Amino acid sequence: MRISEASRVSGVSARSLRYYEDEGLIVPGRFSNGYRDYCRSTIDRVLVIRSLLESGLPVRLIKEVLPHLTDGPDDVGTDVVCAEFLHEVRSYRDRLAARIADLSAQRAALDAYLREVRPTDA
C-alpha cells in the first residue's frame, strides 16, 4: 500500500512514517516509480513504534529494543548490552507497569460506579 493508505490504516501521519524510515525504524519497499510500498508487517511494526513512543520510550532506545519486540521470542539473541541501556529499559518497563496499575484502578472505579448508579429516564 502507498503512504497515504498506510497512514490511514495505521493512524500515523505520512510525515511520521517518513520520520520512522529516516530513523531506520522501518524499511518500506519501493515501487518501480520510487513510491513507498507498505506491507502489513510494516504497518504492524509502525503500531508497535507508535505505542512505544506514546509510552515515553525515546527513539534511540526503540531502535535498540524494537528488533527483539517484533522478531519473536525465538529470535532474541544474547547480545551484550551496556548497563545504562538495561537501566533505561527497566525504568521504561516500570513506568509502563505503573501506568497499567493506574489505568486498572481507574477502570475498577468506573466499574464500581456503573454497578451502583441507576439510569434516569430521559
UniProtKB/TrEMBL annotation:
<keyword id="KW-0805">Transcription regulation</keyword>
<dbReference type="GO" id="GO:0003677">
    <property type="term" value="F:DNA binding"/>
</dbReference>
<feature type="domain" description="HTH merR-type">
    <location>
        <begin position="1"/>
        <end position="68"/>
    </location>
</feature>
<dbReference type="Pfam" id="PF13411">
    <property type="entry name" value="MerR_1"/>
</dbReference>
<keyword id="KW-0678">Repressor</keyword>
<dbReference type="GO" id="GO:0003700">
    <property type="term" value="F:DNA-binding transcription factor activity"/>
</dbReference>
<protein>
    <submittedName>
        <fullName>MerR family transcriptional regulator</fullName>
    </submittedName>
</protein>
<dbReference type="InterPro" id="IPR047057">
    <property type="entry name" value="MerR_fam"/>
</dbReference>
<keyword id="KW-0238">DNA-binding</keyword>
<keyword id="KW-0804">Transcription</keyword>
<dbReference type="InterPro" id="IPR009061">
    <property type="entry name" value="DNA-bd_dom_put_sf"/>
</dbReference>
<dbReference type="InterPro" id="IPR000551">
    <property type="entry name" value="MerR-type_HTH_dom"/>
</dbReference>
